[in-house]
Amino acid sequence: MKMPRRGSMAVLTLAIAGVVLAAAAGGCASLRADCQKSGAFDFCVTRAERSEVRAPVLYYFHGGGGDAREWAESGLGRSARAAMQSLGQHFHVVGVSLGAYRLYREDEEAMLFVRVMAEAEFALGDRWDGRRFIAGVSMGGFTALSIYLRHPGKFEAAAASSPTLFAFDPTMPGEMDAFVRRNRVAASHAGVLKARFGGHFPSTATWRQFDPIRLVESAPANARVYISSGTNDRVGLFEGASAFVRRARERGIRVEFDAQAGAGHGRVDSERVVKFFSAAR
Predict the structure, then answer these.
(1) Which DSSP symbol is given to 261?
(2) What number of other Cβ atoms are within 10 A of residue 247's Cβ?
(3) In this predicted model, what pLDDT tens digit does every residue of 56-80 receive, in sequence order?
(4) Contact yes or no for 244/148 (Cβ under 8 A)
(5) Per-residue pLDDT for 281 more than 90?
(6) Tag placement on the chain: N or C end, fewer CB within 10 Å?
(7) How far, in Å, are 56, 145, 217, 265 from residue 210 at the CA level?
(8) Which pLDDT tens digit goes with each residue over 172-203?
(9) Burial letters for 61-96: b for 16+ Cβ neighbours within 10 Å, e otherwise?
């Protein structure tokens, strides 16, 4: 699929009267996030703080239960912004959401490109330098890696923290139950995993189209990926993250793996992620 570039179609700019979100922490200035709805998507654009800087766009996908405002409102976003400021790295950030627990289907992924990304990049105008990065946490980490690997060359690099990756096919009967027992996943988490992954993909063939562990087998040699995962992740996802890293390195793909000893689910090392993206710029 060819992705539209800035000005390649008639699109609406983001509403001028956007939502101003306070994020005063660690000396960070307030964030301004311009939020709107485009089809099934909600998205919020947070512009790079220095108005004179042309910067790349970072597309951010939240974890389960989150929304498009997560980057601008949450502690994760404030921590990442502080890291960007201290390292002198500037990004426009677009938080994207289909809903608190929605995964993408192929037609929705297409609309992400032709509507959300086109509208956000058009609105940024000359402040966008033409480069894209992609990142996500938990369920959003799965989405970010899948999109990055399905569309090589469209993003400079991808980062995923505690991504929901499986070293098995969740559409196969009994596989998810075995995973839950093997990793002692809490019942509440197990229910979400079964519903969102076992139920979302109707067949093995469909799963393979989106599974990052399988997609990385055909990734180009210049792919750049950062993954972090806690060894004490109670959702059991360290297993899948490790499998992804092994498969990628077997293919000669450069993967920075932050195996966080003793950490649980969802920990994000903002400074390390920003440094990774900086090296890929």
Answers:
(1) T
(2) 19
(3) 999 999 999 999 999 988 888 889 9
(4) no
(5) no
(6) N
(7) 26, 9, 12, 22
(8) 999 999 999 999 998 888 988 888 887 788 88
(9) bbbbebbbbbbbbbebbbbbbbbbbeeebbbbbbbb
